[in-house]
Design goal:
By secondary structure, the protein is of the alpha+beta class. The protein has a domain at 301-510: Butyryl-CoA Dehydrogenase, subunit A, domain 3. The chain contains 15 helices and 18 strands. Strands 3-2-13-14-10-7 form a six-stranded mixed β-sheet, with no helix packed on it. α5 packs antiparallel against α6 (147-162), α7 (296-332) packs antiparallel against α12 and α8 (341-366) packs antiparallel against α9 (381-406).
Length: 541
């Protein structure tokens, strides 16, 4: 393969060339699903084969695209990464970050994937594996052991060499929200350990949101919150095959496959979508921790930070779809945004929102730091949370702006059957054509595309997952406040006011201080790898 040597995680004194781990194609992924036999229900009926179920096909298509994406030679610098500890070239969605450059390349890869699929889903595995690397190292360092690192490294090799897709089973059913896990009337509102023996653990409970659950190979079970001592049985992290005995998955359809809608067949979400699922003996080698309540917050925080960073890229890809469709709709309506201020302003606003929160993701990558225990790189938390907060609260503005430049036709247009109705088709093609150079069918196709993304059941779903995926806006605001170097700003002003106030750790507003974002002295560490050059676009002449 080309360009492997240019990848940022190749930095170091490695003497031997890395070995390529096996990579599946999209079709091989579909075939692999047929070897798994999970117990899955969709719309109240049992599913015989996940890979062949029409209601799940858009989700399977989205995952299949991620596999074919990694096989494209021109995309190798961003789609693949070198895990230097193993000297293996692996799918970037299964890579533990070794540099700020790794985070930048992951960001770009997720954006490109989501430009095509809306939500690639597979990047959640990357976020969970990076969080798990950090907590495994943290537990070992606290105990003076090596077993947690060893278990994680063995599992990471298993996942990378199998090129597996992982569903992240983190969000619990939660029961009565005012009560902690051990206080619930029904203990199965949270996943918990019910038995320990020489071979492993037995767990029970419900995970309420597992993205892509039915069409994953394995599930990573993780705690959804910080646990107290009384919640020790609920502090469990382990991996299970999706078809382990005792697991039942109740899933939504993925996208809108074959749905006969008022405004016609869904042009985007019939192809790509995602399912969310409500989901067991686990051998010890698949248990990363059980009962380690004092470390549960490490995994929760690490995963959330990585995941919010990835969400930024995912929604930037979605923003790219809206920007492109909005511009096409303006053209189809016979208008030029460059010459029409009433269209140019909302188009620029849409661009500003998309590139604004994406820039936060870039900043979070550039100012990333190495975790002191695992050595893996963590996005800078303030920028990661600001970027996610911006997209979460502005997703509705993105939809509104797309509607503003598109006009009311996106929900008022006739259904597709009229396109072929001899009694109406000819007249409709005359009266609904706007620009003489844009055929009627092209205008209508663009309108239906925007309707599917923004004004349909699927569009509303994108809004909700953008708002709450990766945590609520309140959680992001908490992390921003907790990590922001407010003390540096306060002491700056006090110095300018010549107050002569000394730094006091007991003072709440000056507790967080940071001379420079990238390090203690405000400089960039020499020799740190940076993002690899992006591949040449095929459309360049």
């Amino acid at each position: 393969m080309k360009n492997l040597g240019s990848q940022p995680s190749d930095a170091g004194a490695n003497l031997s060339a890395p070995i390529q781990s096996p990579l599946m194609s999209g079709e091989a992924y579909r075939e692999s699903l047929r070897r798994y036999k999970p117990r899955v229900f969709v719309d109240g009926r049992a599913v015989d084969s996940v890979a062949d179920e029409p209601a799940l096909r858009p989700g399977v298509n989205a995952l299949a695209f991620t596999y074919d994406f990694a096989l494209r030679e021109e995309l190798a610098p961003i789609a693949l990464a070198t895990q230097s500890r193993r000297q293996r070239v692996v799918n970037r969605m299964l890579h533990v970050n070794e540099s700020a450059g790794d985070l930048l390349n992951k960001l770009e890869a997720v954006r490109l994937l989501c430009q095509e699929t809306g939500c690639a889903q597979r990047y959640l595995a990357h976020d969970a594996l990076n969080g798990l690397a950090q907590v495994s190292a943290r537990i070992d360092d606290a105990r003076g052991t090596t077993e947690h690192r060893a278990r994680f490294e063995a599992y990471l090799a298993h996942v990378q060499d199998g090129d597996l897709s992982l569903g992240i089973a983190m969000t619990d059913a939660k029961g009565e929200r005012s009560r902690r896990p051990h206080q619930q009337a029904n203990a199965d509102a949270y996943v918990h350990v019910v038995e320990r023996n020489a071979r492993g653990i037995v767990i029970s409970g419900t995970k309420a949101i597992v993205t892509g659950g039915p069409y994953m190979h394995e599930l990573l079970v993780m705690p959804s919150r910080n646990m107290g001592r009384e919640d020790a049985d609920f502090a469990v992290c382990c991996a299970v095959r999706v078809d382990e005995p005792g697991i039942t998955i109740v899933s939504r359809p993925a996208g809108r496959p074959g749905e006969k809608l008022e405004h016609g067949d869904a042009p985007f979400s019939r192809r790509y979508g995602q399912a969310t699922a409500v989901v067991l003996f686990v051998p010890w080698e698949r248990v990363f921790f059980a009962g380690d309540w004092e470390h549960s917050h490490v995994l929760t925080y690490s995963y959330a930070t990585h995941h919010r960073h990835s969400c930024i890229a995912a929604r930037a890809g979605f923003g790219d779809l809206l920007i492109g469709a909005g511009a096409l709709m303006c053209e189809a309506n016979g208008l030029d945004p460059g010459a029409t201020a009433s269209l140019r302003e909302p188009m620029v606003e849409l661009i500003k929102i998309t590139e604004g929160f994406y820039a936060c993701g870039v900043a979070a990558s550039v100012y990333a730091t190495a975790d002191p225990h695992s050595g893996s790189f963590m996005p800078e938390p303030v920028y990661a949370n600001i970027g996610k907060l911006l997209l979460a609260t502005q997703i509705y503005d993105m939809h509104r702006l797309a509607h503003e430049v598109s006009g009311g036709l996106i929900v008022a247009l006739p259904g597709p059957d009229e396109d072929h109705n001899p009694a109406t088709a000819a007249k409709l093609s005359e009266v609904l054509q706007a620009h003489p150079d844009i055929p009627y069918d092209k205008r209508i196709q663009t309108a239906r595309f925007i309707e599917d993304l923004t004004a349909s059941h699927q569009g509303g779903w994108y809004s909700v997952i953008s708002l709450h995926g990766g945590g609520s806006p309140a959680a992001m605001k908490q992390e921003i406040w907790r990590n922001y170097p407010l003390g540096s700003k306060v002491e700056l002003v006090e110095r300018l006011l010549e107050r002569g106030v000394l730094h006091d750790e007991r003072r709440a507003i000056t507790r967080n201080r940071q001379p420079g974002r990238c390090c203690d002295t405000g400089c960039t560490a020499p020799g740190q790898p940076v993002m690899v050059p992006l591949p040449e676009r095929r459309d360049k002449g």
